[in-house]
Every structure is written in C-alpha cells, then in structure tokens.
Design goal:
The chain is α+β, with helices and mostly antiparallel strands. It is 21% helix and 28% strand. It contains four helices and eight strands. It is globular and about 55 Å long.
C-alpha cells in the first residue's frame, strides 16, 4: 500500500517500476479511498446497469491552502492538483469503469496566491465516457466539499448528484424521473 501521489517525477516513477518488477509477484495499491466510500459504492451499482457512455461532472470545493503549506511544496506534497485531484480522477475511472485516453486541463491565473489550485480538467475515457473535474480552492465553505453530477444515464436524461459522500439512501422518484439522495453522514471511504 502506498500513499498518493505515488510519485512526483519521472525518476521516482522509474524507481517504483524497477522495485515493483523486482518484487514480483506482488500487488501495488495506491491510497485512493473515495471509491470505497459507501455512497460511491451505491452509486457504482446504480450506474453500473447503464450500457452506454456516461457524462460525469465532478465539482470539488477544496478550500484555500496557503502556498507555504507542505502539501503545496513541489518536492514534498507535489501540490494539490497532483496530490489531491488524483482522487477525483480515480473516482471517475471507478464510476465509468474505464481508463482515460485523453486529458485537457486549464488553471485560472492567480499570481501564486492559490498555487494553481483552481483547475478545470476534461477527461475522455476509452469506453467513450466523458468527465470534467472542476477543482477550486476559492469557493465558500457552505458550497460543500464535492459533488458528482451525471447526465445521460438513460434515455430519460437522469441527473444524479452526490454531495459530500454523505448519503444514506438512494431512492428513485418516478414522477420527476430523478434519483433522490438523502444525506445523513460523511464517509470518504477507507481501505
């Protein structure tokens, strides 16, 4: 088991590959806990019935962390985009059950105040699914930590929201053709 990010540069990656290959047979698990959250598992079951590409929008309100914080250090924490946004890339991979084949990301200019923490990334997956991740550090705390919207789940244009990994129950409102998520707790998942 390795904490994320697994590495911060190509040299570290080469060392990891060499160590992994010399230790065969063994497994390698990186600490992406979001996919193990109870709500994420329920959502995976729900959208797992869909047999066509998905469009997912993941909004993360990460909150401000000053550039002097260790997580922002390019050699220690790698910055929040490398060290934390990777959770949300993994979460989208988990939900669509596919690997990204193309990624385009753009950060807001910020003169160093936000350390490049305000990013929109567009991911195209091998199965045709599309995902966007909006990762911001300047939103108000009341907006919630994270939200996943999914459209195109069926011909009736269902829209799902997963907010703060805090849902106890999923129910389908047939009259309004929407999934209702009842919030009761916050559990980011554990391995």
């Amino acid at each position: 088991f390795c904490e994320k990010p697994l590495c911060l540069n190509h040299e570290e990656l080469r060392e990891i590959v060499k160590a992994y290959q010399s230790a065969q047979p063994c497994g390698l698990l990186v600490g992406y806990n979001r996919r193990f959250a109870p709500m994420a598992l329920r959502l995976k079951v729900f959208i797992g019935r869909i047999r066509e590409p998905l469009v997912l929008h993941y909004r993360v309100n990460a909150g401000y962390v000053p550039s002097s914080h260790w997580v922002q250090d390019p050699h220690e924490g790698g910055g929040r985009i490398v060290g934390e946004m990777c959770h949300f890339v993994d979460q989208l991979m988990f939900l669509v059950d596919s690997q990204p084949v193309r990624v385009h990301a753009t950060a807001l200019p910020d003169n160093g105040h936000y350390s490049g923490d305000n990013v929109v990334a567009r991911l195209e997956f091998a199965n045709g699914s599309l995902g966007t991740i909006t990762y911001v550090s300047f939103m108000f705390e009341l907006k919630g930590l994270s939200k996943v919207d999914s459209t195109g789940l069926n011909p009736d244009d269902v829209e799902l929201d997963l907010i703060d990994y805090g849902a106890e129950e999923l129910t389908w409102d047939k009259e309004n053709n929407e999934l209702i998520v009842q919030v009761a707790f916050t559990d980011f998942g554990s391995m």
